[in-house]
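Section 3.1: Structural characterization of target chains.
Under the original work plan, the team committed to producing a structural model for every single-chain target entering the pipeline before any wet-lab resources were allocated. The record below documents one such target. The sequence was received from the expression subgroup and is listed exactly as submitted; it comprises 323 residues.
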Amino acid sequence: MKIPFLARRPVCLATAPLGIVVLTLLCTALCTASVAQAQNFVPGTGHFLPQVGDDFEDPEWSFKMNWPKSSRNIDDRTRNPTGISKNRRWYEGVKRGMPDHIRRVETPEGGLEGSEGALLLQSMLVGMPKSHTYKMQQDDFIADVKYILRGAIPASRSPSVVTRVYVPPFDQWEERNGCSFAFRAALEPRFPRPKSRENWNEPDTYWPGFLIDFQSKEKGHDRDAAFIRVRARSSGADYRKVEIKETGWWTFGMSFSPDGYVHYYVKKGVEDLTAEDHIASHLPYGSRMKEFNTFFFNVCSYDDGKTWSTPWIVDDPSVYVRR
């Protein structure tokens, strides 16, 4: 983009005419957006990293549950040993614990060509063992990326992550308004936040991604509907971006460019993502990414000890780098 001559000259905004002030600010905003867009790229392009992620094609795929699970987010309890998959590519999150059902299943109709196995994630006991909070809680299913690769992936290598998610018919969803599922990344910021007495031991890690919300006809809405929510704007606010008008397979991807931006892509179906599937680019929470640690899935449910979450199925989560 060619910048007008007046906008390229040094300008004192405090004394400049109003027109020049407006023009200068507008050009600055457009140039910033253009630079971010220039580094945007489609998730799944570049070099596939076979060491991490999973295709769930092994008939012997299994997960060792190691009950009881952790609930550090509620009662500050980490219960070791934590759950881990037989292929050692997945592990239980020590903050919230693992989903109650982690099982390889036959790939639902319409999945990736040649895929015979996918993974079912579902939960009921989402809070503390033998106790209930009677509000929404969530479990974590975390991919081992950082430790398998012996280090995080720097933004300079342009990493990305892609997964397919089977969105079940609405009559199979938990009858509850709110978040049901999430696909997210764990990132380290380029500039750690200032420490204070209140947050001195909190990690700088932040977790952008996609959340899938449900609004239930049984809970006050005129119809059953689901929406994809983006996490998050630079302010830290989530927002609904895409309505899921058709259930079945969807493809989600995030790419992480060297400038520290997160780029969000979504499409209906299992075909590879393209530039047309881009829905947003942000510096989530105002943080500029330094490194990509890993990715994970969340399964959410009402923590009453008897309500099952929506059954979620995922397939072929994969990590790529362009450099």
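The first helix runs from residue 5 to 8.
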